[in-house]
Design goal:
Order of helices and strands: EEEEEEEEEEE
Number of helices: 0
Largest sheet: 7 strands, mixed
Radius of gyration: 13 Å
Distance between the termini: 39 Å
Strand content: over 45%
Helix content: under 10%
């Protein structure tokens, strides 16, 4: 069982930036396909961004051009750099490994 620990959430004003981090407990991190999901109150959990073990990335249309997913295999960590944040980005953000393991989530609130 892979343990995933997210950090970096918080309160930010519209137009601001945040960077989320997710560190995995496994030394096999480099072969994992990693992703970030988010879930707003009363809504389903949706895919935000994905990064495969070969470095290829995919983004939801709603975040293209604003969010960047990256990974540091030496630190067993995946990042989500979020720029030009909007109130509709407010949600709990979850890290995912291999479409199987989940982190505990970190709250992101975009509000003035």
């Amino acid at each position: 069982q892979v343990q995933l620990v997210e950090s970096g959430g918080g309160l930010v004003q519209p137009g601001g930036s945040l960077t989320l981090s997710c560190t995995a407990s496994s030394s096999a991190f480099s072969i994992y396909n990693m992703a970030w999901y988010r879930q707003a109150p009363g809504k389903q959990r949706d895919l935000v961004a994905r990064i495969f073990s070969n470095g290829i990335t995919r983004y939801a249309d709603s975040v293209k051009g604003r969010f960047t997913i990256s990974r540091d295999n030496g630190r067993n960590t995946v990042y989500l750099q979020m720029n030009s944040l909007k109130p509709e980005d407010t949600a709990v953000y979850y890290c995912n490994a291999n479409d199987f393991n989940w982190g505990q989530g970190t709250q992101v609130t975009v509000s003035s």
